[in-house]
Structure formats: structure tokens, C-alpha cells
Design goal:
two-stranded antiparallel sheet, four-stranded antiparallel sheet, 4 helices
Length: about 180
């Protein structure tokens, strides 16, 4: 697996740098882009528009408050307030406790890194930014990773042949986080 931030992996290029998000500076961008891109997703569900922003903002807030969730942003080199995109992820083994299925006793816990959300501005796509964000998160699209949502822009990419490692796991994020030991 590609080393993530815990391994000291800092991704940079001449055009952008991937750095940990600064909540006071970067989270408004994370919320706004997540809400807008998810709104167009066919996986967003049948939220009435008068409820959508409140319900989804609260969902994002709860996910970002999970103790193991990390957020990284792609910034313009030398101008950290100018953002190209972001990734929201959990390292492997840091997931929720899911009650066992009443029929089988199976607990659907992924145990791999989780990609909660990834976003890159439309005019910055196809420049290696999403790949750099995933690398920072320690996620390789061909190796096992979990995701609870499918973003509109990347949903099709997750389903393409080159994203063969993805496993959808929405249940895990409905429960409080616990450290999973395999």
C-alpha cells in the first residue's frame, strides 16, 4: 500500500501541495464542496431540498468529529488559503462498531483505509490532484479501501476498472468509532 501521512508522506508538486487541513481556514471549503457535489449524486437519496442542507451538514459535522478522521487539502504552493480540493479519510483499523447481523452474526467492518469523500475543483481535474490526495491518505484505488458515499464526480471513477479495491461500507459510519483489531 502507498504510505500515508502516518508514514510522513508529504505530497507536493510545482503546482500544488497536499497538507493537513486547518479547520478554521479550510473546513468551510470542505463543507461547501461536499454539500454541493453530494447534492448532485444519484446516491444522495430522496432528501427534500428544504431538509437536504441541514441533514447533510449535520452528517458531515458528525463524520468530521470522529476521532480518527483526517482531512487533507490540495493547496496552491505558497498560498495555502487557495484550495484545489480535499480528501476526508480514516486510516485502516479505525472504524465504527457495527452490531452483528441478526441472521448471520457477521459484522461488516472494513478494516482497510476509508475514503469518506474526495473532491477536486472542476478546472483542476486531470492534473494528478486526486491521485496525490489519495496517496496522502494511504489509499490505492487497486488495493482494498472502503467508502460510505459515492461522490457524483468520482462515483463513476470508483466503479471503473482501475478502482478495483473499493468496497462500499455505509453501515460502519452509522455507529460510534472504535479501534478494530484484526
Amino acid at each position: 500500500m502507498t504510505p500515508g501521512p502516518e508514514a510522513g508522506n508529504q505530497v507536493t508538486s510545482d503546482a500544488f501541495a497536499i497538507v493537513p487541513a486547518v479547520p478554521d481556514r479550510d473546513y468551510a471549503f470542505v463543507y461547501d464542496t461536499w454539500l454541493e457535489s453530494f447534492k448532485r449524486s444519484p446516491w444522495a437519496g430522496p432528501y427534500p431540498m428544504d431538509l437536504y442542507f441541514g441533514v447533510c451538514r449535520e452528517t458531515i459535522a458528525r463524520l468530521l468529529a470522529r476521532p480518527f478522521v483526517r482531512v487533507a487539502v490540495a493547496t496552491v504552493v505558497g498560498a495555502p488559503e487557495m484550495l484545489h480540493g480535499h480528501v476526508v479519510f480514516e486510516p485502516p483499523g479505525k472504524h465504527g462498531h457495527v452490531p452483528p447481523d441478526s441472521r448471520t452474526g457477521h459484522r461488516p467492518v472494513c478494516g482497510a483505509p476509508s475514503l469518506l469523500w474526495i473532491y477536486v475543483k472542476a478546472d483542476r481535474r486531470r492534473q494528478g490532484i486526486a491521485t496525490a490526495l489519495l496517496t496522502h491518505a494511504g489509499i490505492s484505488p487497486r488495493e482494498r479501501f472502503c467508502y460510505p458515499f459515492q461522490p457524483y464526480a468520482t462515483g463513476a471513477v470508483v466503479l471503473r476498472d482501475r478502482w478495483t479495491g473499493g468496497q462500499r461500507d455505509a453501515m460502519t459510519y452509522r455507529f460510534p468509532p472504535v479501534e478494530v483489531r484484526e
